[in-house]
Design goal:
The complex is a heterodimer of chains A (397) and B (296). Chain A has 13 helices and 18 strands. In chain A, helix 3 runs parallel beside helix 5 (87-95). Helix content of chain A is 39%, strand content 20%. In chain A, strand 17, helix 13 and strand 18 form a beta-alpha-beta unit. Chain B is 37% helix and 14% strand. Chain B has twelve helices and eight strands. Chain B has helices at residues 27-39, 51-55, 76-90, 103-108, 111-120, 166-171, 186-198, 212-215, 222-231, 249-252, 262-266, 277-295; strands spanning 43-47, 68-70, 96-102, 125-130, 177-182, 203-208, 238-241, 244-247. Classes of the chains: A alpha/beta (397), B alpha/beta (296). The interface between A and B is large, with 49 and 45 residues.
Chain lengths: 397, 296
């Protein structure tokens, strides 16, 4: 069914179609319309789920962690400081290998307070062991939410579906709401490997020692380091799972084909702009203009950010002369986090392109297409690695 | 309270394996063993980091025969809510959900999530075992450390503030059932947990659990120290049932009788060595006032 709705409502429909069984959330702008919509679905009897109006984000993820450990499909959503407040639980959910899905409606982080969009919130959680996927439009939001549950349950790793606050969460765009029967076929009910059960007692997340220890039968059990190594290797494996799930989704719904990165006119491009989220649409306009000027430019939106899809990134970028990474987040005192990842991925490529880094739109600062155009054009004139320092666009110093 | 359980009809089945990692003389060891008998096998436990995490053992061996979810420090009550929500979705609501947290995990870092769950009225039993400091991390003061007690963060003069009155805070949430208990009176706490299982909404049980290394007494005196706390009127055993307060068992029997002086309790533990006569007199007066209220 086609509709015109906000990005938050697109996410809510995705959660409803995925038949999440326990939803816990705490209000924070710009996530609120998503959880309001879900509470409306549950309260109105349209959705068979328990909606828990918790007293904090820390508790929101606590409810999801416990519900998932008890064997049901759990969902929450947050933004900015809410995500940071639950950060301990974010790490816990990954370590406990729970297939929770969480929407992060991207917003800048205080202090000072800002309620507007950038990516510092989810980027700050990139090393927690979650899968992170960034959507760039409303259709991707709803499709990614549905896929996220399948992916999370396939690999027993939680998934963050990230999308831009306001730019996507509060704007209205047309998108297709998949048929429930088709979604049920694509995403069968959750079958946990273990669920808390008095008839099969287990003590979950107990204290581990630095070394491995035998169990009561004398068999050595994995220790903390083995458990964490498994999380890492399973995350790396998830890169393939994402591709398989994308292919299955395309078979069923006819959409997809770019599971890891989303290239635009980049096949023959000399210079490629790279970004996360909705910025890729604006950069496509910029690339089109530069193409008209005779510069072979393209765009590569990164959809899967963790695990980082190195191979797909190298395939998409390594043939270019220059890569220009536009980022709404920063590893303070270093460079854009994505830029560092791109450089690392390209390190082994034979014809290593230069990589430039621009920081844009922090705290919702307007990103002017003319500014992007000027920066991208200037970068195309560059011939070598001029500087590692990220340049800032839109500053009024 | 209905028919009282006696040592003769207390269930013989043990749900805590022998050989736990509790310290010798641990008050928690007593209340946990008896408490699980009251909860029964059809129970899911939720436990934050605390002495109980240690008592239950190190991966991959566990001392408890019940399923247990270990959770982050501040999230105990919210996690109990999550287990409960999942059980409801699954139609397994006959299973009892019981959270066991220490005094820090309850009255300090855990109070926000606990208050939230109580306000929602989520149907589980929250048991706080109160050894009156952060014992698991090496005896740092907590919100329920009593006034004057020396801890590793009140090392010379003792804690200047009074003990936070957690059961009354819980009662102010309008819970169906709030009760106190003591490791020195295991049958009393057994009956209270059994009763909590029959009540709706959130239930709160606050257990006084003497701690030999933290309080500074010999491991053989756990029960006698616990009894003295009750006999001096410093830790009272009561129930608040649907808002109605009444003393129970050993505390009820003290009404109208002469209580032991609080100094008798303080003298048993080295943590009270910094208390002055003036402090002791002040605390005696407070206990006397509280009991004058009971006896009115």
């Amino acid at each position: 069914m086609h509709c015109i709705e906000s990005g938050n409502v697109a996410a809510a429909y995705g959660v409803k179609l995925a038949r999440a069984q326990v939803i816990a959330a705490y209000p924070i702008t710009p996530q609120t319309p998503l959880t309001e919509k879900l509470s409306e679905f549950v309260d109105g009897g349209e959705m068979q789920a328990e909606y828990i109006p918790v007293e904090s984000e820390h508790s929101a993820l606590a409810v999801c962690i416990a519900a998932s450990s008890t064997g049901v499909r759990a969902f929450t959503a947050t933004s900015a400081n809410g995500l940071l407040y639950m950060s301990e639980q974010v790490h816990w959910a990954a370590g406990a290998r729970l297939p929770i899905v969480m929407c992060v409606v991207n917003r800048g982080v205080g202090a000072p307070w800002t309620i507007w969009n950038d990516h510092q919130d989810s980027i700050s959680q990139r090393d927690a062991g979650w899968i992170q996927v960034y959507a760039c439009d409303h259709q991707q939001i709803i499709d990614t939410v549905i896929q996220a549950f399948y992916l999370a349950e396939a690999v027993s790793i939680p998934v963050m579906v990230c999308y831009d606050g306001y730019l996507l969460s509060h704007t209205y765009m047309p998108f297709d709401i998949p048929e429930a029967a088709q979604v049920d076929h694509f995403l069968p009910p959750f079958k946990p490997a273990y669920a808390l059960d008095p008839s099969q007692p287990a003590n979950l997340n107990t204290v581990t020692l630095p070394d491995i220890r035998p169990d009561i039968r004398g068999d050595l059990a994995p220790g903390y380091m083995e458990i964490r190594h498994n999380l890492h290797t399973d995350l790396r494996q998830a890169i393939e799972n994402v591709a398989e799930i994308d292919a299955r989704f395309k078979d069923t719904f006819g959409r997809g084909g770019c599971p890891h990165v989303e290239p635009y006119r980049s096949d023959d491009a000399d210079f490629i702009a790279v970004c996360l989220g909705s910025l890729s649409y604006q950069l496509r306009d910029v690339a089109d203009i530069l193409r008209d000027e005779g510069l072979k430019t393209g765009v590569c939106g990164i959809r899967l950010y963790r695990p980082f899809p190195d191979e797909a990134v190298v395939d998409a970028l390594a043939k270019a002369k220059g890569i220009v990474v536009f980022e709404k987040a920063l590893s303070y005192g270093n460079q854009g986090a994505l830029c560092g990842d791109i450089k690392a991925a390209l390190y082994h490529s034979k014809q290593r392109p230069f990589v430039r880094n621009y920081i844009v739109g922090l705290g919702g600062r307007e990103i002017k297409t003319a500014d992007l155009l000027a920066a991208f054009r200037a970068s195309c004139a560059q011939t070598d690695d001029e500087t590692d320092t990220p340049q800032w666009i839109g500053l009024n110093l | 309270m209905g028919a009282k359980t006696t040592i003769l009809n207390l269930p013989a089945e043990e749900l805590v394996h022998p050989g736990t990692r509790a310290c010798a003389g641990c008050g928690l060891g007593i209340v946990y063993r008896v408490g699980l008998k009251a909860l029964g096998r059809d129970t899911i436990l939720v436990v934050p980091p605390s002495c109980l995490t240690v008592l239950q053992g190190l991966y991959p061996i566990a001392a408890t025969q019940l399923p247990c979810l270990n959770v982050t420090f501040a999230s105990t009550a919210a996690a109990a809510t999550g287990v409960l929500a999942a059980l409801k979705v699954q139609g397994r609501e006959h299973i009892t959900v019981a959270a066991w947290a220490g005094d820090g995990g309850t009255s300090d870092i855990g109070i926000q999530a606990l208050s939230g769950a109580c306000e929602r009225g989520d149907n589980f039993i929250f048991i706080c075992y109160d050894n009156e400091a952060y014992m698991n991390t090496g005896v740092q003061r907590s919100g329920t450390t009593p006034r004057g007690a020396i801890t590793t963060t009140t090392p010379i003069h003792g804690k200047p503030q009074h003990k936070k009155d957690m059961p009354r805070i819980m009662a102010a949430h309008g819970l169906s059932y709030v009760a106190t208990g003591s490791a020195a009176y295991p049958l009393d706490l057994y009956d209270k947990i059994k009763k909590a299982k029959t009540m709706g909404g959130t239930k709160y049980i606050h257990l006084h659990t003497p701690c030999p290394p933290g309080w500074g007494f010999d491991t053989r005196y756990t029960v006698s120290v616990g009894r003295l706390a009750v006999e001096t009127g410093l830790f009272d055993l009561y129930e608040i049932e649907e808002g109605v307060f009444h003393l129970t068992g050993p505390s009820a029997r003290l009404v109208g009788k002469e209580r032991k002086p609080v100094s008798a309790y303080f003298k048993t533990q080295s943590r009270f060595r910094a208390l002055t006569q003036a402090h002791i007199a002040e605390m005696q007066q407070q206990v006397d006032e509280t009991w004058a209220g009971y006896e009115k």
